[in-house]
Amino acid sequence: FTLTSFSGETAVDEKIVRTSGSHNCGGRCLIQVHVRDGRIVRISTEDDIPDTPQKPQLRGCLRCRSYRERLYHPDRLKYPMKRVGKRGEGNFERITWDEALDTIAGHTQRIRQQYGPDGIYIQYGWGNSGRVSERVWMERLLGLQGGYLSYYGNYSTACTHMATPYTYGTTNTGNNREDWLNSKVIILLGWNPAETIHGTNTTYYLKRAKAAGAKIITIDPIYSNTAISLADQWIPIRPTTDSALLDAMAYVMITEDLHDQKFLDQYCLGFDEDHMPPGIPAGNSYRSYVLGDSEDNTPKTPAWAEAITGIPQETIIQLAREYATNRPGALIEGYGPQRHAYGEQVVRSGIALAAMTGNVGVKGGWASGSGYQARGNFVASIPAANPHKAQISVFSWPDAIVRGKGMGSELSVKGARQLNSNIKLIFNLGGNCLVTQHADNNGTAKILADENLVEFLVVSEQFLTPSAKFADILLPADNMMERDDIVTPWGWGDYVLYMNKAVDTVFECRNGYDWISDLAGRLGLKEKFTEGRTLEQWLRYLVEETAKKNPGFPSYEEFTRNGVYRWEHKEPAIAFQKQIEDPQNNPFPTPSGKIEIFSSRLWDMKNPREIPAVPKYVPAWEGPEDPLRETYPLQCIGHHYKRRVHSVFDNVDWMEEAGRQEVWVNALDAAERGLNDGELVKVYNDRGIIVLPVKVTSRIMPGVASVPQGAWWMPDAEGVDRRGSINTLTKYHPTPLAFGNPTHTNLVQITRA
Amino acid sequence: MAKQLAFYFEQKHCVGCKTCQIACKDKNNLAVGQLFRRVSEQEGGTYEKRGAAVIPRRVYAFWLSISCNHCVNPACVEHCPTAALQKRAADGIVHIDQERCIGCQTCIKYCPYGAPQFNPDTNKVGKCDFCRDLLAEGKEPVCVSSCPVRTLGYGTLDELREKYGALNQTKGLPNATITQPALVITPHRHAISG
C-alpha cells in the first residue's frame, strides 16, 4: 500500500490509494491516488495487471485524471450556510452545523405534519452515485419517518426505460460487449460512447469489434468522436426524425423481401395483419403502417423519409440492405434520440427492425431498445423502504410544486389516484437538476424562487452551483476522494469497485451518513436509522450481503485492498437467448409472451396520435416540420461533452482548456449569419438567451446547432445566460407516455452577440 | 547512440478525448496554457443540399496527439544557447536541464511541433521528458498508460517502424525532414497527405 519513491535526493513516503469515481458517469474506473503528506500529488489508473484484450485495465479518462483541480478548487464550499436575501440570489451566511440541522429538523417535522408525505421530495441527483451516498441515507431516513414523494425514470433514459418494456417486457435487452466481436455490422444510432462514457472501455470493445471485421456505421447529426475514430460510414440525420429513417428501412426490407418472416411469425405480435391480437380492426399492424395500408395512407418510402430526415433515399436503401443482409448485426441506439418530444417511438421502431432482421437472442445480434445488460451482478444496497407509494415522473416535479394537490395520472402520477399536496420541502443532495440540468432554466428558477410554493429547500453540495444558489440551508459535502464507498458501473462491465478514502475531509465538510445520522437523532430516529452501526460497519455489511449471493466474493479486507472485484463469466450474455432457442418454455415477459410490436396496453390508452400501438414517426413540435422554423430556423441539441460529467467539472480550468464551452454551428449556417469561428454569439428562442463562443465547423450538419450540455446556468442582470446552459433554451413539455424530458427538441436562432 | 526511444500514435482510432493531455498535465503539474502533450482537431469539408437531402461532401475530421518527438535532429538542442537542452545518448530522450535554462525561449522558436512550453512562474521552459522517472521504474509514460482506446505506445524507433511502418508525418504536422521526429503513426484515413 505504501511505497517509498525518490524525489531528487530525498526519500519521501508516497501512499497509493485505490479508489474510483462516484459522479454520474457511465464509466467506473480504477483510480490510483498518489498521496504525500496528506495531499494528492498525482493521479494514475489501474496498472498492477497487464492490459490485455481479454481483461483490459479499467482506465480512467480525462475527467478523473483532472480530479486534483476539482478537489483542491478554491471555490469548494467550506461551512454550512443559511440563505440571506431572496431565494436564488445566492447570498449566504455561515452558520454552525447544529443550527443547520436544527433548522432542517424543524421544517421537516412541520411540513410532514402540515402537508403529509406528498409535500416532501428528494430531488433527482447523482453527483454522488455511491452505495452510501447522501441520497441513499436520506431515502432511508425519510422512509423511516413516514415516507415521501418519490419519482420514477431518470433524465437520461426516461423514454426508453418506459417504452422498451411495452415491447419486450423488460429493459434488460443488451448483450455483453464482448459479443460485438461476432457482429458483421454495427449501427450506432445517436450513440457516441467515445464522448458520453457508456461503460469503461466501451470504445475499446468497439475498436476490437472493428478489428474482427465488423462494419461500423454511425447515424448522428454530429460527426462524433466515435464516428471519426471507428466508423466506416457516417450518416447525418435531423434530430427527432430517427423513427422516419427506421420506418423507411422497414419499407425497403418488406418490399425487397429482405426481412425474416419466419422469425416474425414465431416470436412477434403485430408485425402483420395475420398476427394481431383479437378485436383490433384491420390496418393497424406495423406492416400496414409502413406500406401505407393504414389510416394515414402514406407508404413510408425512402423518398418520404428523405424529406423528413435529410438522408438521401439511396443512402436509406443501402443502409436497410446492409443491416438486413449482413447478419448478425447490431443496431444499437444511444439515449440521445429518445430524449425528444416523442422519444418513445424511436425505441420501439428500433426493436421492430431488430425483430425483422432476426437479430434478437442471437450471438452478434442486438435486441435494440434500452440495451441495459441482460446479465446483472448482485451488489447489496443499504436497506431503505418508502412506505408512501405515490410517484411522479422524474421530469414532472415543477408540476408537483405548482399544482401537485389533485394531480393524477394525466400528469404522470403513479401509485396513487392523486397527490394530496404540492411539494413543499425539497432535499437536493449532490445534484444540479433544480436548474441547469432540468428544462427551461428561466421558468424553473421563477418557480423555485417563490417561497410560497416550495417552503424549504436543503442542498448538499461541493460548490455554489446554480441549483445550490436556491438553497435555504446549504451544506458542504465531502468529496469522493475524502470518503469510503462502493460503486458499480451503470451496467457495462462485470465488476464492482471499492473507493478507499484518500485524504482527510477539509474544513467543515461532512459525510452524508454523519450529518444525516445527526438529523435522525433530532427526529427521534437515530437508533432505528443507524442500527448502531458506524459507516465502516455499514460498508462491511454491504460486502457481507454481497458475498452471500456471490460465492467467492472477497472479504472486506481483501476487497478494500484490491479496490476491485471482477466477475469472470465464461460466455458473454445474449439477451433473450432462452426465449429464441426454446420459446415453448420461455415466453417473453409481455402480456402475450411475444415481442409486442403491437401493444394492446398502448392501444388501450386511446391516444393513437401521440401514443400509437405500433411504433410510428410522430412529427415533433419544434422539429424540422414545425412552422415555427420560419422564426427559429435551427434545430438545437445539447450533446454530451468529454470535459464534463453532466454539470460536474464545468468549473475546472484544465477542462475548459481541453474543451471550451461553445455552440457548434455548421459553416454554411455560420456564413449565412456572418458568424466567425470563436466569436461570441447569441442563441435564443422564446424561452431564453445564451451568449457563448461559436465553433464554426463541418462536424455538424447544416440546419442543426448544438450547445454541449452541462454548462452552469449563469444569468446576468438582464437574464441572459453568459455561460451557455442548453436548458436555458429547452422546454418543460413532458413526453406523452414516459413524461420524460424532450431535451433535444428546440428551435433557435443564432446571431452575433 | 545505443537506441532511440519513440512514441507510437494510432491516429486512425484516436477519439480526441484528451485523456493523455490531462494525464500529462497532472503528472507534470502544468498550469493552464502549458501543454507538454497537446491534442488538436483537424476538420473541414462541406455539404450539398439536394431538395430536402443534406449530403456531406468531403467532410473530414481527425485528431493529433503530439508531445515532444525526441527528434533525431532536434532543432531545440542545436539552438539552445546554454546547452540546457540535451539529447540523452543512451535513449535519445531530449530533456531540459532546469538549472541551465535561462528562459530565452529560443527552443520554442525553432521547434516545429510546439513542444517546449514557457512557464511564466519559473521563467523557464519545460517539456515532455518521456516520463523518464517512470521509465526508470519500469513503467510506461503516463500518456501511453492513460489512453482509454490504446492508441498510444512507445518503444525504440527501430522496433516501432518494423511493427507499424515508417510514417512520421500526416496532414496537420510539419515536414518531418526538418527534425526527423522519433514518431511512428498509423494514420487516420482523412489525414494521409496526398
TrEMBL record, chain B:
<protein>
    <submittedName>
        <fullName>Anaerobic dimethyl sulfoxide reductase subunit B (DMSO reductase iron-sulfur subunit)</fullName>
    </submittedName>
</protein>
<dbReference type="InterPro" id="IPR014297">
    <property type="entry name" value="DMSO_DmsB"/>
</dbReference>
<dbReference type="GO" id="GO:0046872">
    <property type="term" value="F:metal ion binding"/>
</dbReference>
<dbReference type="Pfam" id="PF13247">
    <property type="entry name" value="Fer4_11"/>
</dbReference>
<keyword id="KW-0411">Iron-sulfur</keyword>
<dbReference type="InterPro" id="IPR017896">
    <property type="entry name" value="4Fe4S_Fe-S-bd"/>
</dbReference>
<keyword id="KW-0813">Transport</keyword>
<keyword id="KW-0408">Iron</keyword>
<dbReference type="Pfam" id="PF12800">
    <property type="entry name" value="Fer4_4"/>
</dbReference>
<keyword id="KW-0249">Electron transport</keyword>
<dbReference type="GO" id="GO:0051539">
    <property type="term" value="F:4 iron, 4 sulfur cluster binding"/>
</dbReference>
<dbReference type="InterPro" id="IPR050954">
    <property type="entry name" value="ET_IronSulfur_Cluster-Binding"/>
</dbReference>
<dbReference type="InterPro" id="IPR017900">
    <property type="entry name" value="4Fe4S_Fe_S_CS"/>
</dbReference>
<keyword id="KW-0004">4Fe-4S</keyword>
<comment type="function">
    <text>Electron transfer subunit of the terminal reductase during anaerobic growth on various sulfoxide and N-oxide compounds.</text>
</comment>
<feature type="domain" description="4Fe-4S ferredoxin-type">
    <location>
        <begin position="92"/>
        <end position="121"/>
    </location>
</feature>
<keyword id="KW-0479">Metal-binding</keyword>
<feature type="domain" description="4Fe-4S ferredoxin-type">
    <location>
        <begin position="5"/>
        <end position="35"/>
    </location>
</feature>
<keyword id="KW-0677">Repeat</keyword>
